[in-house]
Amino acid sequence: MAASVVPSTNNPYNLIVTEPPSFVRPYVIPDLSGPAVVLINDAIRAPINNLSSGGAFSLLQLNAQNYIRSGYGDLYQTPPHYHSRFHETFFCYKGEVTLWANGEARMLTVQDFGSMPTMQNHSYSFTEPDSTLLAFITPGGFEHFYWNVSVPLVDPTNAPFAPDIHTHFLESTFEAAIGPVFDVIPIFNSQFSYNFTNGTTNQSAPWHNGKTTAPNNAKEPYYLANNWSQRFLHRATGQVIQPRATAVQSGGNFTLSTMVMRGKAANETTVEYTFDVPQFFQILEGTMMIRMMCQTVAMSTGDIAFIPAGTAFSYWSEVAFTKVYLGCAPAGGLSDALVAQAEPWAYGVFPSYFGNLTNSTSA
């Protein structure tokens, strides 16, 4: 089910777009829409880019099969590198993405998360035949590196990636692009561990068998396993928020979370929110309704909404269970507001009863 809209004549813009706008405005872009480029076997899209976010952040989506090219170590991977300006995060949307940072690594499966602050040596590899990586990067603009080392993806089927189309690695172009201009600084002869047991190279830290935690600073890379890190229940609305990066881990530059929500009750009202930071939603499961610019859009799996600062919006789940990935830059958006009025919660889903509906759906 693609995004659909209840049309309105009260605004000159249709919320649904087929590619990211070149200026800041609210929009919803359906899954796998917009221009794509291919780098060997990776299909790369930027549903939110530097222009559409006003420089606040970029949200890139990389779709690929398991790497088959020659590379580094036993698992083929991107060349080790670091960034001096960009804080890069990795969210496994589906499949498996192996992520190295400094001396250790994790195999990220569905909805696992990794954070790579500036100056941190890292690398990644797609390790399942149909995998998707979401890269939220601040500030915006990192997509320009990919645009300069790739070729346009021409695929009439609009598949996530084209497994039967292989492009020649543009070695000279790649070598010209690495360095300070695009802020990709290679680390030659970097040594990474490939001694994985149960998806991790660090047997002293839990990975899908115990609580994973984020550091209390913005300088260390870290990994969080899906539903194995801190969660909060906003009881009145039945929303469970799992922070992936807070102002503490981002130096105040952004917030990222996943959130599950129950279906809206018949007697439940929705509240209109307005924040002074730009933010996004991406649907992971279910169907979420979002209303802004006098239009209501039904968003399904993979669809993305961009909400500029100062834009009034409301949202609710149209089905029994919906899960979203959401974030903002700088910190101070919806998930921050919800967590501020939430309680610690031990479970990955909402309670089996309704909260206090007299409080409607306000945060």
TrEMBL record:
- InterPro entries noted in UniProt: QDO-like (IPR053146), RmlC-like_jellyroll (IPR014710), RmlC_Cupin_sf (IPR011051)
Tell me where the signal peptide lies: none
* SUPFAM superfamilies in the record: RmlC-like cupins (SSF51182)
Q: Which domain of life is it from?
A: Eukaryota
The portions of this protein that span the membrane are none
Recorded hits in Gene3D superfamilies, A to Z, give:
Jelly Rolls (2.60.120.10)
Protein name in UniProt? Cupin 2 conserved barrel domain-containing protein
Q: Which organism is it from?
A: Friedmanniomyces endolithicus
